[in-house]
UniProtKB/TrEMBL annotation:
It comes from Longispora fulva. It is an enzyme of class 1 (oxidoreductase). Homodimer. It comes from the Bacteria. The active site is at C50 (nucleophile). This is Glutamyl-tRNA reductase.
Amino acid sequence: MNPLVVGVSYRTAPVSLLERVAVAADAVPGVLRDLLAQQAVSEAVILSTCNRVEIYAGVSAFHAGLLELSTVLAEHAGVPIEELVEHLYVRYDDEAVRHAYRLAAGLDSMVVGEAQILGQLRESYRVATSEDSAGRVLHELLQSALRVGKRVHAETGIDRAGQSVVTAALELGAAESGLEPANANVLVIGAGAMGALACATLQRAGVAQLVVANRTLDKAQRLADSYGGTAIDFTGLPAAMAAADIVLSATASSGHVLSATAEPGAAWTLDPGAGAAPGAAGPLGSKLILDLAVPRDVDPALGELDDVILLDIERLGSALAGHTSSTDVAAAELIVDDEVSGYTAWLRGAEVAPTVAALRARADDVMATELRRLDQRRPELTDEVRSEIARTVHRVVQQLLHQPTVRVRQLAAEPGGAQYAALVRELFALDVTSDSVQEALGGKE
């Protein structure tokens, strides 16, 4: 079983495609079940964020696994697979491990070094664990990736190079609009993980007034209370929109929350599907609107209005495309390289373990058979003599097996090492699925 990553991100696909491929939180369990129903897929974890959708899987074969993961993702998104594959990236075996570690370290983020991805990866792993879709390969991969991410942030200065996406959006927005978060009236739409990060960032920036809007008032209230803000549900958006200098939207809505409108005296309308009374609308005035959601919360047409600057994930990605990494990135890459070697050694060892267990089980069976034959042929032997003979035979067999089993483990850790375990199984006609082997492995495959 080997790790395989298939995904799309802001680097490989336009936001319009990311919006279609994005997997909403309530849809993740169903997609995981679809993945596990595939023949070559035995484990799966889904990571869906504002700028990437990735499937981590344990597969028995590369080509079959790639086709199955791509097909499930395309069917979920309602995108022809021929269109989707043009934007997919694929990482297999060691490169899948490297990708996971670089991701957790913030090295593949839109803003290099940002730490939010660690929480997102942790949540994806939690969901997969609750759905029992992560097995031995992905448990080890995700746990080690989270550890690597923490190590990189602890041992390098990458945090100095990396801002959160929220911080980057606020800085770019301020550069274009002249509206600084300090002493501004800010409206945050959405009380999820991104909304919480926005509130924390804005509080540190010293905003004059912070308003948190959410479909459900109690969730908005909990977030607002944590950061000294005011909570409203979506029925209060018209007044809040009118009073805000900066609007930051980051909901999990499947469509636009704010749309352009031709209604006299109003520049925007709240999508009835967002949970407010139909027809909620109002004037906009001079505004900086930051849309950090995928799918997008804000109708791009709003950005065409006078005195409105709209910055969404697509524009943010373009603006950060030339972002220069600090020298600490090199140190982070070295840590990743070191940790990839460690995981690879573990994986190869795990793959050869059933073969070693089967070889030892075969030796135990041969010893037991010969000792029983001795008992039948030499009934006059005392129990003490029989015990001494058994111990001697056992020591001889263990000494004979020691060097081959140590060596096959060493060879298995090298590139192409799986062939050595396969040769041992072929030479000794070993059955790695037998009950004795599974018992030796603790009942695990």
